[in-house]
Amino acid sequence: MADPLVYINGSGTVSPQPAFQTEKFPFEPVSYETNPLKVIDPGYKEFIPAEMIRRMGRIIKMGVASAKLCLRDAGFQQEDGNYRSPEAIVTGTGLGCLEDTGKFLGSMITNKEEFLTPTSFIQSTHNTVAGQIALLLKCHGYNFTYVHRAFSFESALLDAMTRIKTATCTEVLTGGSDEITNPSFSIMQRMGFWKRKAIQSMELYQDHQRGTIAGEGSSFFLLANKKNDRTRAVLSGVTTFLHPESSFEVVHRGYRFLNNMKCQPNDIQLIITGINGNPQDDSVYYEFLDKGFSGTPMAGFKHLCGEYLTASAYALWIASGILSTQVVPPWLMVRGTQPEKIDNILIYNHFKNQEHAFILIRKV
Amino acid sequence: MPERVFITGIGIVCAIGNNVGEVLNSLMAERSGIGAITLFPTLHQGTLPMAEVKMSNQELASDLGFSTAKAYTRTALLGMKAAREAVRSSVITDMKAFRTGLIGATTVGGMDRSENFYASFLTDPSKGKLADVVNHDCASGTEQIAAYLNIPDFITTISTACSSSVNAIMFGSDLIRTGQLDRVIVGGHDAVTRFTLNGFNTLMILDRSGCHPFDENRAGLTLGEGAAYLVLESDETVAAAGKKVLAEVTGYGNANDAYHQTASSPDGKGAFLAMTKALSMSGLAPSEISYINVHGTGTQNNDLSEGLAIERIFGENVPPFSSTKAFTGHTLGAAGAVEAIISVLSLLHKVIFPNLNFSTPMKELKIKPVSRLMTPVKLQHVLSNSFGFGGNNSSVILSRFENTDVQ
After folding, report:
1. Lower CB density within 10 Å: C or N end of chain A?
2. What was the pLDDT predicted at B407?
3. pLDDT at position B403, please?
4. Is B218 in contact with B233 (CB distance < 8 Å)?
5. What gap in Å lies between CA A189 and CA A205, rounded to an integer?
C-alpha cells in the first residue's frame, strides 16, 4: 500500500514581515536596517485573552497567534469565534523561551536566590508554546516539542507526518518558533554570528561581511490526510543529516531524498535555500547548486526573517504561498529567473554546515 | 502490520548508582540516593536535599576517556556515560550495520554551565567565558553523545518537561515501527542546576525532608539528576544479530491535560488518557498490567490526580504500584528513561521495588503503594508513567520477553 499523502491545509506565520496568512501572499516586503529583525505584532489580543497577554513571553505570544492564524486559514474557526482543536500539536524550537529563561536566571543571580517568583520559571520550559496552544484549544491529544538546533522544526514535521502516515491522526498542527532577546543577540554577536556593520535586510545577499542578520518568528501548518478546497500544497517529505563530508555528499543525499519521493532533480522548478549573506555559509549552498542543480532557479528567505534555528518553518510558509498562488515574487529570487509554473519546490537549509535538511513540497 | 520494538540494551547513571549493576544493588538494598547538596554553592544548602550523581565532572570525563571536562556540560557527560553503557550492553559493534538513530531528551540542556556564564555576563555583556554558554542549547548534549558513539543516521532531541524521555522512547519506537530506522538509542539526561532548584522552590513543591510519594503527608518532590538510555531495535535486527532481548515495548500513549501550565487537573484527565492510549495500543486489558511504576513525584497535586486516574482505569483491581523517585529523586528530562530502565529491571529480576518513605495512605484514595520490596513476583507487563509541565502526560508499557529470564 502506498503511503498516504500529507496535505498542508492551512498555514499562518508571525514574522518580521507584514503578512500573516498565506492568502496575503505575495506581500509587500519590508526592508530593515536594524539587526536583529523582530516580528511585527499581528494584534495579539485577537488571539490571546487580555489577562494572559501581559504575562506571556514573546515566543509564546507569537507561537499562539501563528497557530491560530494557521487554524483560521485551515477553516478551523467556528461561527462563535472559537477554534476547533486539531488532534495533535507538534512543535519545534531551537532555543525555546529565552526571554523567560533570561528573566528567571537574571533575578536568581541578582537576588542571590531569594524573593523569586515562579512565572518566568514556569514559562521558561521548552514546551510552553505547545502547552499553551493545547490549553487555549483544549486539545487533549498528542503534544510533542523538539529542541534540536536547526533540526527542531524538521523533527516536528517528521513526527507530524508520521502521525498522519500511521493513521494515528488525521489533522496535526505543527510549527516552529524562536525568539531573539538582547542577551542572546549579544552572546551570539560575541560568537561571531552577526554582521558588524548595518545593512539593508533586502540587500542581505549583496553584502560580503562575515556573519548574517539575526531574526525570529513562528510559523504553523495544519497537516491533514485529506485535501479540501483550502489545501495549499502536498508535503512530500523531510530529511535531516549532520556534518556532510563534502558538497558531493550533500548532492548525493539530495538526489536520494528526491528519488525516495519519486521525484527527479529536473522536476524541481525552484530551490529555496537558507542563504544568509555569510560567505562561509552561502558557499555551501552555491557548491550544492553548482554540482547538483546548476540550472535550477534559487530563492532565499532569510532577508525577510533573519537567521534563527527554526527559520526553515518560514521557508515552508513561503513555499506554501508560492505553490498555492503560483506566483514567485521577484524579491525572493537570488539566482536564475522566476519559474512560471511551479509543481515542486525543494527547501534546503543548513546551520553552520552542521545540521542540514531538505523538505520537498509539491503542488496539489 | 506494525513491527515489534525490543529493548536490547540499557545504561544508567543516577543518584543510586553509576551503572545498571550499581542501580540494581541500591534498589535491592532499598538504599536512597537523596542527600545533601554538594555540587554547587547555593542558598539552599543545608535546607533542601537533592539526589546527586556521586561523581564529579572530572571523574565523569576521565571515565569517558577525556583528559578534561572543559568542553562538556555535566548534562552531556551524564548522557554520554549512560548511552555508552546502553550501546555496550546491547553489544553493538558496528553502528553502520543498520540505520541507527539517537533521540535525546532534556529539560534545561547545558544550564549547569550557562548559569555560571550568566553571572559574569550580567555584570558586563563582554564578560563570561563563551565556552560556558556554547553548549547551553538542548541539542548540544545529544550531538556530543552522537559524536562520542558514532551514531550515524538520525538525531533529534525532545523537551516536554518531565515526560521528555518517555516521549523519546515513543518517537523512537514509532520510527522503528514505520520502518524509518532499524535501531535507535533513546533516553534523556539532565544535571541538577541552581536554575531548576530555585525554579521548583518558587513553586513551593520541594520537600525539605526528601520526597515521600503517595503519602498523606507528602510535601513535594526532591530534585535529582542523571541519565538513562535504552537501545531499541526492530524484530529484524534482533533476529539478524541473534540479540538477547531485555524487554519489549508493547504500548505507549501521550496526551495533554490542557488544564494548567504546571498543575495537573483534579481528575487527572491527561494521565487517564495517556494510560488508556497505551493500553489500547498494546491490546491489553487493565487486569493484565502486573505493576505500575508511577510518576509519583511526591507533590500534593501530582500524586492525587495520578492516583485518581489510576483508580478510574483499574477500578477495584489496581495492580501493585510504587514511585521510585524516593530512590533517584526527580531526574526531570531523564526521569522517564530512568524509570523505564527500573521497570526493565523489575521484569528481568521479578521484583517490585518499594515506594520508600511511605507511611500514611492518602485519604482521597483507596489505594496505597508497595512499601516493601516484593520478590519473587510474576511480572508480565509493566506500565510506567511520566508527566510534565505544559500538561504533558506519557505512559509506556514494557513487557517480558521469553528469553529474558536471568539466572
Report:
1. N
2. 32
3. 64
4. no
5. 19
Backbone angles phi, psi at A293, to 5 degrees: -145, 55
Q: Are the beta carbons of B158 and A146 separated by less than 8 Å?
A: yes
The whole-number pLDDT of residue B152 equals 84
| β-pair partners for A219 | A13, A176
Spatial separation of the C-alpha atoms in residues B369 and B213, rounded to whole Å: 9
Torsion, Cα B103 B106 B108 B113, to 10 degrees, reads -70
Query: Based on the domain organization, do B98 and B234 belong to the same domain?
Result: yes
pLDDT of residue A337: 95
Contacts of B158 in chain A (CB under 8 A): 144-147
SS3 A199: coil
Cβ pair B173, B116 in contact under 8 A: no
B295 included as an active-site residue: yes
Residues B61 and B92 in one domain: yes
C-alpha B218/C-alpha B248 separation (Å) is 34
Written as one letter, the residue type at A281 is D
Q: Please, what are the averages of pLDDT over each run of 10 residues along chain A (364 residues)?
A: 84 96 90 97 95 94 98 96 97 98 97 96 97 97 98 98 95 98 97 96 96 98 97 98 96 97 96 98 98 97 98 98 96 96 98 97 97
pLDDT at B116 over 80: yes
The least confident of A19-23, B89-93, B185-189, B229-233 is: A19-23
Domain boundary among B212, B241, B270: B241
Q: Hey, of A51, A144, A245, which one would you mutate to test binding to chain B, going by the most B CBs within 10 A of its CB?
A: A144
Give the domain extent around B355: 250-401
Do strands B291-293 and B226-234 pair parallel, antiparallel, or not at all (unpaired)?
A: unpaired
Chain A residues within 8 A of B146 when measuring between CB atoms? 242
Please check whether residues B187 and B280 belong to one and the same domain.
no
Nearest CA in chain A to B136: A95
Last residue of a domain, one of B241, B270, B294: B241
Residue B1 has pLDDT above 90, yes or no: no
- Name residues whose C-beta falls within 8 Å of residue A206's C-beta, 6 or more positions apart in sequence: none
The pLDDT of residue B377 is 97
> Which three three-digit cell numbers place residue A89?
500539536
Place of cell 507538534: A90
Superfamily name with CATH number, domain A6-224: Thiolase/Chalcone synthase (3.40.47.10)
* Residue for grid cell 534523556: B188
Is the per-residue pLDDT at B382 higher than 70? yes
**Catalytic residue check, B211:** no
Answer whether residue B169 shows pLDDT above 90. Answer: yes
Residues B371, B377, B383, B384, CA torsion sign: positive
pTM above 0.90, yes or no: yes
Which candidate, B20, B378, B336, places its Cα nearest to that of B188? Answer: B336
Which residue among A106, A127, A148 sits closest to B160, beta carbon to beta carbon? A127
Positive or negative, the CA dihedral A158, A160, A161, A165 is positive
Instruction: Please check the confidence at residue B3 and state whether its pLDDT lies above 50.
Output: yes
Q: Residue A219 in 3-state DSSP?
A: strand
Secondary structure (H, E, C), A155-188:
HHHHHHHHHHHCCCCCEEEEEEEECCCHHHHHHH
The residue of chain B with its CA nearest to that of A191 is: B130
| Residue B406 scores a pLDDT above 50 | no
Residue B135 phi/psi, 5-degree rounding, is -105, 25
Evaluate whether B232 touches B186 at the Cβ level (below 8 Å).
Answer: yes
- Which CATH architecture does the domain made up of A236-362 adopt? 3-Layer(aba) Sandwich (3.40)
Contacts of A77 (CB under 8 A, 6+ apart): A68, A71, A83, A84
Whole-Å CA distances, B259 to A47, A61, A96, A124, A155: 18, 18, 21, 18, 26
Chain A residues in contact with B254 by the CB 8 A cut-off are 142-144
